[in-house]
Amino acid sequence: MSNKNETVIYKWFEEVWNKNSEASIDKLMAADADIHGIESPNGKNGAEGFKSFFKAFNEQFKDVSIAVEHVIKEDDMETALTHVTAFEKASGKKIEFSGLCMTRIKDGKIAEAWNHYDFMNMYHQLGHKMVPA
Fold this sequence. Notes:
By secondary structure, this protein is of the alpha+beta class. The chain has helices spanning 8-18, 23-28, 46-60, 119-125; strands at residues 29-36, 61-74, 77-88, 94-106, 109-117.
């Protein structure tokens, strides 16, 4: 196992999210990357689609911090267990939730990603309740 700090997935969370660097999306994600588990507001996939998600998340939240707790790397696959902390801009409420991101790396960039984040917990912290239809 290599040092987690040397993995693409660790660099992704540090540069894109913790340093709030939209430019790092193009640096670390393939233009045609296939992204699963998050919806892009502009309906696109790949780096452009992720930029849309990134902007929408940052419009709603500030001081986003993602701690990479563990990384598992095998061949071209990298998986990170993460802990997200942020503040909703409108209310100032702090949110915290965890998640997993598994990626396939090709030519030093994310070529495919599977995102499994506890957004239900996030929305619950913001006061949203699940109710039957």
